[in-house]
Amino acid sequence: MFTGIVEELGHVTAVETLGDACRFRLRGPVVTDGAKHGDSIAVNGVCLTVVDHEGDEFTADVMAETLKRSSLGALTVGSRVNLERPTAVGDRLGGHIVQGHVDGTGQVLQRTPSEHWEIVKISLPADLSRYVVEKGSITVDGISLTVVDAGPDYFTVSLIPTTLDLTTLGHKQPGDPVNLEVDVIAKYVERMLGDRLSSEGTATR
């Protein structure tokens, strides 16, 4: 489990195509400190498994399903990536509960700078819009953010200077893809209410 609090801004140092998969080599001195084979590291919000670790770099394999569902397939050598290690039991939960399981992708639509922050508008797939509400939580490229405004096919977030300086969202431009993970609690509530309503409907027939 992750919290959506990015530990460092790393970058891709190598990409190897493996037929229906890819192997990425990524540099991140903070997240590789003490890393070992089999550990999990979130890369732009996608939970990946460390295959190999040498110095301040690690490799991770990405299967076709992940490449299809996320924006990782667009990464090239030099691409910046948000990196986070799983939260340890007993640590503070600085963001919200993040699984590292991307639900879909959106695109940066607009950036509106202000004196001390910046509003970013991001497109929202239709099948995810019901999980996104004003002042709710959403994960964008692995960053835990609060929704400012939620429309039928978009949402906006307000980014402080720290987020702009230390994450990929400081560099994303209109048209760039981003990974989205909605609040898992909303999905569980929907499933439980759906089962309950379905059973109640059956009982009244």
Automatic annotation (TrEMBL):
Residues 1-96, 97-193 form the Lumazine-binding domain. Pfam families: Lum_binding. Its EC number is 2.5.1.9. It comes from Streptomyces nigra. Catalyzes the dismutation of two molecules of 6,7-dimethyl-8-ribityllumazine, resulting in the formation of riboflavin and 5-amino-6-(D-ribitylamino)uracil. It comes from the Bacteria. This is Riboflavin synthase. Lumazine-binding repeats lie at residues 1-96, 97-193. Keywords: Repeat, Riboflavin biosynthesis, Transferase. GO terms for molecular function: riboflavin synthase activity. Pathway: Cofactor biosynthesis; riboflavin biosynthesis; riboflavin from 2-hydroxy-3-oxobutyl phosphate and 5-amino-6-(D-ribitylamino)uracil: step 2/2. It catalyses: 2 6,7-dimethyl-8-(1-D-ribityl)lumazine + H(+) = 5-amino-6-(D-ribitylamino)uracil + riboflavin. The lineage of its organism: Bacteria, Bacillati, Actinomycetota, Actinomycetes, Kitasatosporales.
